[in-house]
Amino acid sequence: MASFYQYPGYDTGLWTFHGVGGGPVTTKPAWRSGPGQWDTGRAKTVGGDFNGDGKADIAAFYEYADAQTKIYVFDDVNGPNVKPRLAWDSGKGNWAWSNGTTPLS
Question: Model pTM greater than 0.70?
Fold first, then answer.
């Protein structure tokens, strides 16, 4: 299981939780955005295997100003080197959140 956590100053971390549902739960920080880089209020996330490798990934729709949305994929969130990769960019003026719905998996 994984969760985003927003620290002060729009500094967001991605944490993974291991052992949920059986045994002691352990946590691990998997990624950190850095101050001013990621506002959880601008992100809508969904879990799945988006690159076909059989491992858990997270896709995040992230809203920017001027009706622009980007999709970032965090590949293998349980792995040692979690980094978001840009998978799609709507371009400015092309994707207003007020016209969309929550992502479905």
Answer: yes
